[in-house]
Specification:
single chain; mainly alpha; 83% helix; elongated
Length: 71
């Protein structure tokens, strides 16, 4: 505890949380339905009453933000 590595890890976690907040509520919902619950794009689209293209956009945006967190 308290070492440089620990501080860097806490910083990475903080950045991750902030970026997740910026994903937006609807985008989070789409990501959750697809990646956590395992629904297919068409199932998410039907459930949330949005187009499949919109689902694709939300997933792409969320993955882009999360990928940026890992760098």
């Amino acid at each position: 505890f308290g070492g440089t590595g620990f501080i860097l890890e806490l910083n990475n976690i903080a950045v991750f949380i902030v970026r997740c907040i910026f994903i937006g509520e609807r985008c989070q919902e789409v990501f959750y339905e697809n990646k956590i619950l395992g629904l297919k794009y068409n199932e998410v689209a039907e459930k949330l009453q949005i187009s499949i293209k919109t689902v694709e956009g939300h997933i792409s945006r969320a993955l882009g933000i999360l990928k940026a967190c890992m760098n």
